[in-house]
Amino acid sequence: MMQEQTRLAAGRTELGTRPFARSHTLDLLRGLAIAGVMAIHVSQAFPSNIRAVDFAFMCGWTGVNVFYLVSAMTMCLMWTQRSGEADPTRKFYIRRFLRIAPLFWLAIPIYLAINGTGPSDNAPGGIGPVQVILTATFLHGFWPDSVNSVVPGDWSIAAEMTFYLVFPLLITAFGSRRRLYLALAMVLHLVNVCLFKPWAFALFAAYYGPGHEGFVWTTLHLSFLNQLPVFLIGCALFFSLRDGFTRSDAVIFAVFIALSFVADRATGSHEFNYLMINLVLGALVTGCIKLAVRFQPLEALGRNSYSMYLSHFAVIYGLRQIWPLADGLISLLVAYVVTAALSYLVARATWHLVERRAQDLAHRLTMAGSGRSSLRPTIAATAAGMS
Q1: What predicted TM-score, i.e. pTM, was given to this entire model?
Q2: What is the 3-state secondary structure (H, E, C) of the chain?
Q3: Which end of the chain is more exposed for a tag (fewer CB within 10 A), N or C?
Q4: What is the C-alpha end-to-end distance of the chain, expressed in Å?
């Protein structure tokens, strides 16, 4: 009788997650995200000097937010598909840690060697043991001059890892009640805009002194508190896709937008536009999943997006040292193609040398003492492809 109930429950879970039953579209979205992230950094190093083109490439910054939305959806998918396993929280932490940490730790000495430890825009006082330790422990997102100072772009890694830390608590408390995720996103957004950001800006602007106001403002924009609502929106969209959208969902989003607009105008936080961009991105991600959009080249990039994210900064640096072309449209396009190709090759190498071994270890640790996994291969592929 118990086995029959378990089988029926598993059937309901599989039916409920049918929009996510294949990882192809999630991989495509990760591919779009890494394509966008590379675009902005390539355009910064190899500008075309054509305003419209450079602006289009600069819009690639939204790729990180697509990563956040897809990450939240993938975590919800993994959690619901593994709902029957023993000790899910411990196993979740093991899988996520071994997915992110080994390659990130490898990047730390590489970028210290490339960029040095002297003062920079991201670390006005230079890089010391504090910045390195905070980065290695994934706490760098909580202190301004450790954000992006050791590993370029590491602010998003800090946000991801902090989200992984709180995710089991969130999904255990909220379950599939998507309106709770939206309500919490709304509250945290308003707390950040009205209370935390003004207080933290005054504190850190005084700490770093005159002339560093822009640096402080940027790091607060990149803070986890400002990014967490994006993850929560991703969780809500997952359960909306699984269970169906309702008019009440639209009402909550409308209230969210209205309150954010009022708070933004009252405080001058300039985060309303950021919220709106993320909501538009959420709608695009949802549409792609509902339509099961596929494009194999982007899917290939998506399956290797994490390593490409970490490595493309080094690739761009190396290319900049030997680049034979003068700045212009041709130079930008060629540099983008070369950066994507080399970053992909690096990603394939790190998959065989680092990531595959780390995932094998995670599998051994999480399967120890457990029965044979009942996960379908497609769901396992989704987890493996997560960036």
Answers
A1: 0.90
A2: CHHHHHHHHHHHHHHHCHHHCCCHHHHHHHHHHHHHHHHHHHHHHCCCCCHHHHHHHHHHHHHHHHHHHHHHHHHHHHHHHCCCCCCHHHHHHHHHHHHHHHHHHHHHHHHHHHHCCCCCCCCCCCCCHHHHHHHHCCCHHHCHHHCCCCCCCHHHHHHHHHHHHHHHHHHHHHCCCHHHHHHHHHHHHHHHHHHHHHHHHHHHHHHHCCCCHHHHHHHHHCCHHHHHHHHHHHHHHHHHHHHCCCHHHHHHHHHHHHHHHHHHHHHCCCCHHHHHHHHHHHHHHHHHHHHCCCCHHHHHHHHCHHHHHHHHHHHHHHHHHHCCCCCCHHHHHHHHHHHHHHHHHHHHHHHHHHHHHHHHHHHHHHHCCCCCCCCCHHHHHHHHHCC
A3: N
A4: 39
Copy the structure tokens of residue 238. 């997952």
Tens digit of pLDDT per residue, the chain (387 long)?
434 344 434 444 444 456 665 578 999 999 999 999 999 999 999 999 999 999 999 999 999 999 999 999 999 999 998 877 888 999 999 999 999 999 999 999 999 999 999 999 999 999 999 999 999 999 999 999 999 999 999 999 999 999 999 999 999 999 999 999 999 999 999 999 999 999 999 999 999 999 999 999 999 999 999 999 999 999 999 999 999 998 989 999 999 999 999 999 998 888 999 999 999 999 999 999 999 999 999 999 999 999 999 999 999 999 999 999 999 999 999 999 999 999 999 999 999 999 999 999 999 999 865 544 444 444 344 444 444
Give the sign of the dihedral formed by CA 281, CA 284, CA 289, CA 290.
positive
Q: What are phi and psi of 84, to 5 degrees?
A: -95, -5
Q: What is the Cα–Cα distance from 382 to 77, expressed in whole angstroms?
A: 9
